[in-house]
User: Fold this.
Amino acid sequence: MINIQDIILKVFSGAGATCIIFFSTIIFSLPLGLLITFARMSKFKPLSIFAGTLISILRGTPLMLQLIMWYFGPYYIFGVSFGLAWRVPAIIIGFSINYAAYFAEIYRGGIQSIPNGQYEAAAVLGYSKSQTFWKIIFPQMVKRVIPPVTNEIITLVKDTSLAFVVTYTEMFTVAKQIAAAKTTIVPLFVAGVFYYIFNYLVAFIMEKIELSFNYYS
Amino acid sequence: MSLFEIKNCKKNFNGIKVLDDINIKVNEGEVVAIIGSSGSGKTTLLRICTFLEYMDCGEMSYLNEKIVTSEDGIARYIGQKELSIDALNKNKELVRIKSYFGLVFQNFNLFPHWTVLKNVMDAPISVQKKDINEVKEKAIYYLKKMGLEHKTNSYPCELSGGQQQRVAIARALCLEPKIIYFDEPTSALDPELTSEILKVIKELASEKRTMVIVTHEMNFARDVADRVVFMDNGVVVEEGKAYDLITNPQKERTKRFLQKYD
Assistant:
C-alpha cells in the first residue's frame, strides 16, 4: 500500500511540467492575440479574411487535435522528425496559438467597445494612428478585457492536462498513472486540489490587477 | 483677416443631400453662432471643418492657405488623392493644419484613463512636441482660468458634466488654436451647468478669441455672437448680425424656427 504523502509528492512532481505549459502559453499567447486582432481588424481584406479563418479553425476544432497536429504534423506532412525534443515546443506552440485566437476575439471586442468619440477627439487633437491606439485605445481596452481574459486563463490551467495526448508527463498524466497502478482514486483527487489551488491564485491575482484599474470608470 | 473660409461645400450621405452649397467665412476675433433644427447639417459642417468628415465638393482654406480645392467639381484635399475618412486620417499635411483649430464636443470626449492635467497636457507634448515644463505651466494657467486648478489630479469620472466640459475647453485652449469650434457644448448638461459653460465661452469671446459655436441657446447666440448663421435642410437660409437676425429675422423659415424659442 502506498501512503498519501508519496502520492502527493509524486503527483506534484508533474506540477513543474504543468507550470511550463501554463506560463509559456501566457507569455506567448497574450501578445500574439493582439497581432491576430490587428490582422483581423485590418482594412486590407485578404489579411482580415485570413485572420478570421484562422480564428474560426482554431476555435472550431478540439485543442487536443491541434496538439496532435503540431506534434506529429511535421512527420506526416513533411517527413521530418524532430524526435522527443519537439514535444515541449509543439505543446507550447499548440497552446499559444489556440489561446491567442481566443484572446484575439476578446481584444477585438474590447477595442470595438470603446466609443468613437475617443478616436474623434484624438484625431482633432492631431494624434497619429499609432499614438491614438497605444496611448488612448489600448490602455482602455486592457481594463475592459481583464474579466474575460481571466476566464480564459482559468480554463488554460485546466487545459494543460490535454498535453497527455502527446505523452507529456504533466501532473494529470502522473496522477492517472499512479491511480491505474495502485487502483486508487486518491491521486486524481490530489491533482484536482492542485488545479483548484492554482486557479484560486490565478483568480486572486487577476482580481488585484482588475482593482488596480478601478481608479477610473 | 479671414481665418477660415468654406465655399460651395456639398456633402451627401448615401445619396441624401446633407449639405448643399454652404459658404461661410470667419474673420479673426469673430464669434459665429450656427443655429438650426436637428438634422439641418450644423454638426456635419463642423465635422467637415475639423476633418472628421470630408466634403464631396467645394473649397476650404485656413489662414488663406488652401486646404481643399475644387477639381472638376470634386473636392481635392491637399496631400491626398482619394476622398475618404481613412485618407483624411492618414494625411500628414492636415496634421499641421489641425493645430489651427480646436473642437469642443457635445459629450466632452475626455480620455477617462488620464488625469485632468494629463488630458490637457498630452497633446501639446506628444503631438506638437513642446517642452514639458512650458506646457505644464500653460495647462495649469488654462485650468485655473476654467476654475479647475484644484482638480488637476482628478480623473474625468470624478467631475461633473460642467467640469468635464471645462476640462475639454482647457484641452482645446492648451494647443493654442487660432479658432475654436463648439459642437452644441451644453446639450448634454442641465440648465445650471449650461449657464456655467456659457459663462466660460462668453469670457473667451470677450478676449476676442475666434469661435464658431453650434448652439440651441438663442439668447446666448444673440448676446455673445457677432454673427449668426441659420441653417435648415443643409443650406444656409439666413445670415446676419447676431442681434438683428435673432430679434428680427427676415426669412419666413427663420421666423418659424425662432418662434419656437419664445
The two ends of chain B are 36 Å apart (CA to CA). Chain B touches chain A through 29 residues (CB under 8 Å). The mean pLDDT of chain B is 94. Residues 191-206 of chain B form the longest helix (16 residues).
